[in-house]
Amino acid sequence: MNIIEAHEKGRNSRMVKICCIGAGYVGGPTMAVIALKCPAVEVVVVDISVARINAWNSDQLPIYEPGLDDVVRQCRGKNLFFSTDVEKHVFEADIIFVSVNTPTKTSGLGAGKAADLTYWESAARMIADVSKSDKIVVEKSTVPVKTAEAIEKILTHNSKGVNYQILSNPEFLAEGTAIQDLFNPDRVLIGGRETPEGQKAVQVLKAVYAQWVPEDRIITSNLWSAELTKLTANAFLADRISSVNSLTALCEATGADVTEVAYSVGMDSRISPKFLNASVGFGGSCFQKDILNLVYICECNGLPEVAEYWKHVIRINDNQKSRFVNRVVASMFNTPSPERNCGARLFLQERHGRHEGDAGNRRLQGLARR
Ligand SMILES: NC(=O)c1ccc[n+]([C@@H]2O[C@H](COP(=O)([O-])OP(=O)(O)OC[C@H]3O[C@@H](n4cnc5c(N)ncnc54)[C@H](O)[C@@H]3O)[C@@H](O)[C@H]2O)c1
């Protein structure tokens, strides 16, 4: 069943409309690729940030991803649109992706660990306020397991007869290779309710991805498995980085070469060579926040040992950053100056880019300023 057939069965023959709330690193590229691969679908990406939407409508896109300009150029103005008129496009949409930011909470219960779902909740309330027709609401943001339950409550609290189906469709793209990852994903995961309506919604979204992703790479699961998979995938990736980094100090102490060790270990097909490059530690927007979120969920579920296990991945990462900075400082005879630290700063800026606000990175930058 393709997307058009799926839609016609459920409603009428007009163009399927997708609206994505959040024109960020995930929403922008993901929707551009959907528009390119599904010419029969109208895709509108909306955001409350006027500056961001203006940039998406200009020749200077707000983010740089190899290949993104080309994709946007091919569909913008045809079946891909960027708008700040959030309510209008939510009202008109059949499928609503929610791809808003879910940073770590900075205050209140779970501060420093739990995901801040303020943006998500306000998007859900707005959807509930403006919707007059049935909607498939897709969690694209990375959210704690069981979020769909809370979102369902918000949407159905005063649903005025509108039927909502919530799906979890986490995004696994990496910044820097987003377009390649979207064109050729290892897998697409869609979780839905195990009811006839839930499964029908899963099939509608599956039909969108099936326009270019081989069917055997589109996995369907229950909602909670899909939500938890995203956190688990990031935790496992970060775990590999911390695992190899934890051995760098031992290599330095013993004369072993971590590159040689990692190469030989990675030749084992059960282990694989990916994500085994020793480094200064992971940065970026997702690994730390998603592991902290996982830790918090474990604690909330009365699993302190499991929480402790994942906390260690972050501790090793912090330790690796400190070791790096200490070595830089030591190489300057422990008398760093702003001029001498310029190289380390440039490195950190490049590596941690837009994520200077992250707690771990602030600490690293503070150390680099010593
Ligand atoms: N960046 C990545 O590499 C990546 C990869 C996979 C998953 N994720 C997850 O995807 C989600 C989005 O990440 P991102 O990097 O795209 O975030 P982002 O900060 O780049 O973009 C989020 C956008 O949502 C907008 N927004 C917030 N509330 C809104 C509202 N109520 N209405 C309209 N717009 C609103 C913001 O203005 C912002 O432009 C997060 O949960 C993140 O964890 C990110």
TrEMBL record:
<feature type="domain" description="UDP-glucose/GDP-mannose dehydrogenase dimerisation">
    <location>
        <begin position="224"/>
        <end position="318"/>
    </location>
</feature>
<protein>
    <recommendedName>
        <fullName>UDP-glucose 6-dehydrogenase</fullName>
        <ecNumber>1.1.1.22</ecNumber>
    </recommendedName>
</protein>
<dbReference type="Pfam" id="PF03721">
    <property type="entry name" value="UDPG_MGDP_dh_N"/>
</dbReference>
<keyword id="KW-0560">Oxidoreductase</keyword>
<dbReference type="InterPro" id="IPR001732">
    <property type="entry name" value="UDP-Glc/GDP-Man_DH_N"/>
</dbReference>
<dbReference type="InterPro" id="IPR028357">
    <property type="entry name" value="UDPglc_DH_bac"/>
</dbReference>
<comment type="pathway">
    <text>Nucleotide-sugar biosynthesis; UDP-alpha-D-glucuronate biosynthesis; UDP-alpha-D-glucuronate from UDP-alpha-D-glucose: step 1/1.</text>
</comment>
<dbReference type="InterPro" id="IPR036291">
    <property type="entry name" value="NAD(P)-bd_dom_sf"/>
</dbReference>
<keyword id="KW-0520">NAD</keyword>
<dbReference type="Pfam" id="PF00984">
    <property type="entry name" value="UDPG_MGDP_dh"/>
</dbReference>
<dbReference type="InterPro" id="IPR014026">
    <property type="entry name" value="UDP-Glc/GDP-Man_DH_dimer"/>
</dbReference>
<dbReference type="InterPro" id="IPR008927">
    <property type="entry name" value="6-PGluconate_DH-like_C_sf"/>
</dbReference>
<comment type="similarity">
    <text>Belongs to the UDP-glucose/GDP-mannose dehydrogenase family.</text>
</comment>
<feature type="domain" description="UDP-glucose/GDP-mannose dehydrogenase N-terminal">
    <location>
        <begin position="17"/>
        <end position="201"/>
    </location>
</feature>
<dbReference type="InterPro" id="IPR028356">
    <property type="entry name" value="UDPglc_DH_euk"/>
</dbReference>
<comment type="function">
    <text>Involved in the biosynthesis of UDP-glucuronic acid (UDP-GlcA), providing nucleotide sugars for cell-wall polymers.</text>
</comment>
<dbReference type="InterPro" id="IPR017476">
    <property type="entry name" value="UDP-Glc/GDP-Man"/>
</dbReference>
